[in-house]
Amino acid sequence: MSVITSITMKITILIALFAVSVHGAPRERLELPRLPLKVLVRSDLPLIEARIVGGQVVEPNSLPFQISLQRRNFAGFAHSCGGSVYNENYIVDAAHCVDGFDASNLLVVAGAHSLLIESGFEQRRLVKNVTIHPAYDRETVENDISILELESALDFSEGKVAPIDLGTDLIKSDSVVTVSGWGALSANSINYLMPNLLRKVDIPVVSNKVCAEAYGDGSIADSMLCAGFDQGGMDSCQGDSGGPLFTSNPFTLVGIVSWGYGCAEAGYPGVYTRVADFIEFIESVTGTASTNQSNFIFN
């Protein structure tokens, strides 16, 4: 491929990203990967290719903190991002999932397993207010976190919907973490193969130093967290944005799906917002600490 062709394609992607940031994602498909500009314009990056993301379907309602963030369109609401239940009234999400969208055009669906078939455990809540981190930067994707206030409280009484704890400690490299969502199974830039059922995948944490070697100096901030296999093959993808990166026993939120090059590309780990760096922000918006999970029974 010629240098001119490569540069032309990157400019085309930049234009598409700008259009998404201004006008929102097209109704027929999910938004393109959000990459920091200094990463996107690098001439040595390979083209995005289709790659099936590994993982498995979870047991229904086994991740009761997972939500589907949906955006209003001409037909109602459609899934756009993931998210995590913080307490009865608030959801932790990515800033880029709600940037440019009015709260009235957002819907949170908790307790879902299938996005097509109702189980009866779904709880739908309109969003009352959106708070994006004041230092969120669209170009670098730093501070990619937002808090969604719900119009009415979630019901935790049946245990199908429950909060997740926040990770306050820095997680070590090579620690195994889990990411979940209804995101694409393929990163093909033309079509996204979307799953119907909630899925998860276990991946190792990658040091910020190694991550920066892949994406370039200055691309990985201290408040970011990277995870993925060097050989690729397992990763979060479009539609997983805003969703949880977590550890288990108990469930603890350590990251928020933020950005990455393609999905499951070898040598390019996924990049997440490091939750431990934003505890003060979360509690300042919500005015309360997370409800302890030990009060809930998970089936």
SSE arrangement:
Elements: H1 3-23, H2 37-40, E1 56-57, E2 67-73, E3 76-81, E4 84-87, E5 90-93, H3 95-98, E6 106-110, E7 123-132, E8 146-150, E9 165-166, E10 176-181, E11 199-206, H4 208-215, E12 224-227, E13 244-247, E14 252-259, E15 270-274, H5 279-286
Parallel strand pairs: 9-14
Antiparallel strand pairs: 1-11, 2-3, 2-6, 4-5, 5-8, 6-7, 7-8, 10-11, 10-13, 11-12, 12-15, 13-14, 14-15
Description:
The chain is α+β, with helices and mostly antiparallel strands and 299 residues long. It folds into 3 domains: 3-40, no CATH class; 63-163 and 279-295, Beta Barrel (Thrombin, subunit H); 165-275, Thrombin, subunit H (Beta Barrel), CATH 2.40.10. The chain is 15% helix and 27% strand. The chain has helices at residues 3-23, 37-40, 95-98, 208-215, 279-286; strands spanning 56-57, 67-73, 76-81, 84-87, 90-93, 106-110, 123-132, 146-150, 165-166, 176-181, 199-206, 224-227, 244-247, 252-259, 270-274. The strands form 2 sheets. The protein has a 7-stranded antiparallel β-sheet. Strands 10-11-12-15-14-13 form a 6-stranded antiparallel β-barrel. Strand 13 and strand 14 (252-259) form a beta hairpin. The radius of gyration is 18 Å and the shape is globular. The termini are far apart. The relative contact order is 0.20.
List keywords for this structure.
disordered C terminus; alpha+beta; Thrombin, subunit H; 15% helix; 299 residues; single chain; globular; six-stranded antiparallel β-barrel; 27% strand; seven-stranded antiparallel β-sheet; 5 helices; 15 strands
